[in-house]
């Protein structure tokens, strides 16, 4: 069974289409009109070995908030749809990932229960013209629409770019681990019988 999905979302603020193959090779084709976000999503695909195509247009004349949040919504929906009922997945994933002086710890439970713990003080308000306060907005949207528990903790870091990059690479590795199929698991990984 191919674990893939296509998500489309069009509002008065944004127009987004995402194609995701969970069992990919890390191929990325990303265009969000926000270069730093393109870079982070490219990293997510590459290091998680997800094939990811994103086309996003938003009301950037206002600011990047709506676009970043709606990409998070759609990406969460894409993963949730792509897992096809979650049968056989490992469910849990974690990563402690360095990026030069920055160190990020990411832990995920594909639980069906959205919860975000985000403890990351990014040491600059802007990276280029990207507002770093939008990082947590992306993660809130992603978690709520993927329906996962996600813990993000920045353990160290002085360079804002390195800090955010460590978080996204760590997310890639944790999601990859959690979404992998365990051949020993014949049903969903829960004593409840569903997640």
List keywords for this structure.
single chain, alpha+beta, four-stranded mixed β-sheet, 10 strands, globular
Q: Can you walk me through this structure?
A:
The chain has 195 residues and is α+β, with helices and mostly antiparallel strands. The mean pLDDT is 97. The chain has a four-stranded mixed sheet with strand order 1-2-4-3, with helices on one face. Strands 5-6-10-7 form a four-stranded mixed sheet, covered by helices on one side. It has a two-stranded antiparallel ribbon with strand order 8-9. Strand 1 (4-10) and strand 2 form a beta hairpin. It has one domain: Ribosomal Protein S5, domain 2, CATH 3.30.230.40. The chain has helices at residues 35-48, 65-82, 134-146, 160-179; strands at 4-10, 14-21, 28-31, 51-58, 92-99, 102-109, 115-119, 126-127, 130-131, 149-156.
Indicate the topology.
Elements: E1 4-10, E2 14-21, E3 28-31, H1 35-48, E4 51-58, H2 65-82, E5 92-99, E6 102-109, E7 115-119, E8 126-127, E9 130-131, H3 134-146, E10 149-156, H4 160-179
Parallel strand pairs: 3-4, 7-10
Antiparallel strand pairs: 1-2, 2-4, 5-6, 6-10, 8-9
Helix pairs in contact: 1-4, 2-3
Give the C-level CATH assignment. Alpha Beta
- Name the shape in a single word: globular
Based on the structure given, which CATH architecture is correct? 2-Layer Sandwich
Task: Count the beta strands.
Answer: 10
Gap between N and C termini, in Å? Answer: 19 Å
Q: Enumerate the spans where pLDDT stays under 50 for 5 or more consecutive residues.
A: none
N-to-C series of helices and strands: EEEHEHEEEEEHEH
Specify the biggest β-sheet. 4 strands, mixed
CATH superfamily: Imidazole glycerol phosphate dehydratase, domain 1
Strand content: 25-35%
Radius of gyration: 16 Å
Structural class: alpha+beta
Compute the average pLDDT.
Answer: 97
Give the strand line-up of the largest sheet.
1-2-4-3
Fraction in helix: 25-40%
* Total helical segments: 4
What is the third-level CATH name, the topology? Ribosomal Protein S5, domain 2
Number of domains: 1
């Amino acid at each position: 069974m191919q674990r893939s999905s296509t998500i489309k979302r069009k509002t008065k603020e944004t127009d987004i289409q995402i194609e995701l193959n969970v069992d990919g090779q890390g191929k990325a084709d990303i265009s969000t009109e926000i270069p730093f976000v393109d870079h982070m999503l490219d990293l997510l695909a590459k290091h998680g070995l997800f094939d990811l195509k994103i086309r996003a247009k938003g009301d950037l004349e206002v600011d990047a908030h709506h676009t970043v949040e709606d990409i998070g919504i759609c990406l969460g929906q894409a993963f949730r749809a792509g897992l096809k009922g979650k049968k056989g997945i490992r469910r849990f994933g974690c990563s402690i990932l360095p990026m030069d002086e920055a160190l990020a710890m990411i832990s995920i439970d594909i639980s069906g229960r959205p919860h975000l713990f985000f403890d990351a003080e990014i040491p600059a308000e802007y990276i280029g013209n990207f507002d770093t306060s939008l990082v947590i907005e992306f993660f809130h949207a992603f978690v709520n629409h993927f329906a996962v528990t996600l813990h993000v903790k920045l353990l160290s870091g002085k360079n804002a770019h390195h800090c955010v990059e460590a978080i996204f690479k760590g997310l890639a590795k944790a999601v990859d681990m959690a979404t992998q199929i365990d051949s020993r698991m014949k049903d969903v990984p829960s004593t409840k019988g569903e997640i």
